[in-house]
Amino acid sequence: MTRTTATPTSTSSSRGFTGDGTHNQLNPMFARVGESIDFPLDELPQHESLPETAYQIVHDEAMLDGNSRLNLATFVGTWMDPFAQKLYAETADKNMVDKDEYPQTAAIETRCWKMLASLWNAPDTANAIGTSTIGSSEACMLGGLALKRRWQHARRAAGLSTDKPNLVLSSAVQVCWEKFCNYWDVEPRYVPITDEHRVLDGHDLDKYVDENTIGVVAIMGVTYTGMYEPVAEIAAALDRIQTQTGLDVPIHVDGASGAMIAPFLQPDLVWDFRLERVHSISTSAHKYGLVYPGLGWVIWRTVDDLPSDLVFDVTYLGGHMPSFALNFSRPGAQVLLQYYLFLRLGWEGYYKVQKTTQDVAVYLSGRIGAMPAFDLWNDGTDIPVFAWQLKAGYTDKWNLYHLSERLRLKGWLIPAYPMPDDLTDIVVQRIVVRNGLSRNLAESLMNDITEAVDYLDALEAPMPTEGLVSTFTH
Fold it and tell me: What is the CA angle 110-113-114, rounded to 5?
């Protein structure tokens, strides 16, 4: 398969050609070899090209993507300051796994997770343990593996079977946990969310927990809506279960977003290592940790909460190092970016950034909630994320998928999707407010939403529904 790159018409001139008629580096942009002719899409080109040519082709292809600043579907950060970009370019060659060659990067990784352990109120940071990961999905996998292995050790020590481990989680859980259960043969036990119980809150938890339960996952910022799950209430329910049955079930807190929001905006909310039942916490540094993708962190309350037989001592490039990761070679640059931000912002700086982001979310949710067409699901006062649904009986001419399509015409990516099992008849839209969505941009967004709703309301006949798909993204 080939593709022709459009070429502006140019006048005849010997300039830009060598004596044998081939192009040289003086050729005008879009008219030199590789840009003025076909080039292969799905196979390796036969010949090399100028770096300027290869750059321009890739640059132009990337332009066809959406504007990342207007992507309100993703939680992943899309902006860092010029000094961070400079640091990123300078350190892109560092391999995080090669701690012998890059010992300072390894030391900085340890500093970062110790800072997070302190931020999350670990009782003794010197006795905690953590690691960086490729995003919070890997962090969740490692947290889940530690829960499973710890359960296996306890069962074997008691002479009991380890055949049927299960993990209890919300039906609104992020897909990485579905993957964990699938990949590592753990039965997922989904507690369905309902209009009455919009998050996993400990209600009826005793119906799902048994001797084979390796743990319960609590989410600080549900993907579908952004709401916190009340970790303290879940822990209290597990305390009652232990009193009644003797089952001691730990909690892993999936703090992909909220673990970098709650310490700054809700410091009195008890969700972290202040609860003894919380054994591990994970977060996405590339979400509200404000780092470019992909970086995550996972931290265990104590070294005993991470079974030692999961940690490998690897001899690599002349040195010995402990390794607990699904990936081996991985970039170290994002770890340095995280350290840069910790130094650059400090607690006060993170507070200001997260508070500004939350203020924009509350402004948007207030404006959208005041529109006759919508009912809010939540208001963005947990993490700066909120969702809304079309008011029952408001219209039969359009739905939220149509509104999502209208907003896409203006460049805004705002997904519409059904809620999880037991609530699939409810379709919501969700806005994720990140650093970079200013109040000024938010006002422009509201103008576009109002204009789109006015257009849809003015239709004389219902919009077609064929071909409508969910634009939901985790």
Answer: 80
**pLDDT digit string, tens, across residues 342-353:** 999 999 999 999
- DSSP-derived letter for residue 464 is P
* DSSP designation for 229: P
What residues have CB less than 8 Å from 161, skipping those under 6 apart? 155
Residues in the chain: 474
Beta-bridge partners for 216: 168, 251
Domains of the chain, start order: 1-64 (no CATH), 85-341 (3.40.640.10), 358-457 (3.90.1150.160)
What per-residue confidence (pLDDT) applies to 319? 57
Do 403 and 391 contact (CB within 8 A), yes or no? no
Nearest of 133, 95, 111 to residue 319 by alpha carbon: 95
Angle between helix 135-157 and 175-183 (nearest 10) = 40
More confident call, 60 vs 141: 141
Question: Which structure tokens are listed for 352?
Answer: 């200001």
- The dihedrals phi and psi of 244, each to the nearest 5 degrees, come to -80, -35
Query: For residues 164 and 198, is the Cβ–Cβ distance under 8 A?
Result: no
For residue range 421-446, list pLDDT tens digits in order.
Answer: 888 899 999 999 999 899 999 999 99
429/67: higher pLDDT: 429
pTM of the model as a whole: 0.88
The pair of structure tokens assigned to 150 is 């710890």
Residue 354, pLDDT score: 98
pLDDT digits (tens, 9 = 90+) for 171-188: 999 999 999 999 999 999
Mean pLDDT of the chain: 89
Q: For the sheet containing 416-418, what is the strand order?
A: 374-376, 385-390, 427-432, 416-418
Separation of CA 247 from chain center: 32
Q: Cβ contacts of residue 150 below 8 Å, gap of 6+?
A: 214, 250, 279, 305, 307
